[in-house]
Amino acid sequence: MFKFKDFVQAGAFTNKIAEIAEQEGHHPAILTEWGKVTVTWWTHKIKGLHRNDFIMAAKTDQVASVK
């Protein structure tokens, strides 16, 4: 879970993750709430975690650290 000052910042983070996901063709489950965002990477095709899920999680962490 990633914490933010308000809903606008949480929404902006969600949009950044959506852009990266679209570029990579790999889409997470994203729950955006007031002041927090939960991003879950999981590969449905194999019903589990794939190497790409870990790569995308690292990219998500990078975006979060830029706040």
Overview of this protein structure:
The protein is of the alpha+beta class and 67 residues long. The chain has one domain: Transcriptional coactivator/pterin dehydratase (Gyrase A, domain 2). Helices cover 49% and strands 18% of the residues. The chain is built from two helices and three strands. The protein has a three-stranded antiparallel β-sheet with strand order 1-3-2, with helices on one face. β2 and β3 form a beta hairpin. α1 (7-24) packs antiparallel against α2. It is elongated. The mean pLDDT is 95.
Relevant terms:
single chain; 67 residues; alpha+beta; Gyrase A, domain 2; 3-stranded antiparallel β-sheet; 2 helices
Q: What is the number of helical segments per DSSP (H or I, 4+ residues)?
A: 2
Q: Structural class of the helices, strands and pairings?
A: alpha+beta
The total of beta strands comes to 3
Roughly how many Å apart are the termini?
14 Å
Give the helix proportion (percent range): 40-55%
Rg computed from alpha carbons, rounded to a whole number of angstroms: 12 Å
- The main sheet orders its strands as 1-3-2
Uncertain stretches: none
Morphology call: elongated
- The figure for the number of domains is 1
